[in-house]
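Hi, here's the filled form for the chain we discussed.

Project: internal
Contact: R.S.
Residues: 153
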Amino acid sequence: MNKKNYSEIADQLIKSHTLYSLSSGIIPVPGVDILANTAIQVALTQKLCRLYHIKFEDGQLRSLLNALAGSTFARVSATGTRSLLKLIPGIGTLAGGLALGFYAALSTYASGVVFKMHIENGGTLADFDTEAKRKIYEEKMKEGMEKIEKWKK
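And the returned structure, exactly as it came back:
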């Protein structure tokens, strides 16, 4: 398989997992939605590693994903606030679900693209520099807004 085929398959994986993350917001139980999205992101990164024949360990992937998105506390706090909106009956459930689902999808898209770029440039998990990749991650979060709107149609 040539590099173009790998890249196209990786793009499809990123797209499908981003859309799965979007739906994680509909999980009505605060906290479970966050766990579901974390599992989606880890699964995406595992599949990218397998596609490109990169060795990985699940714990290593979780650590890299948390570091990439910022400190674990900041990420969980921001996401947790969106999740807790679901405790407000009616509008809170809807608003919290939409906000969390959209944020989860943006994060999944951005992390997937960053890992894909790193791997396609010859990188491995051992030399993944989260500090250096964080700016790209933030740029891809913004880019993801346009992509998600297009994919939803």
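Let me know if anything looks off before we file it.
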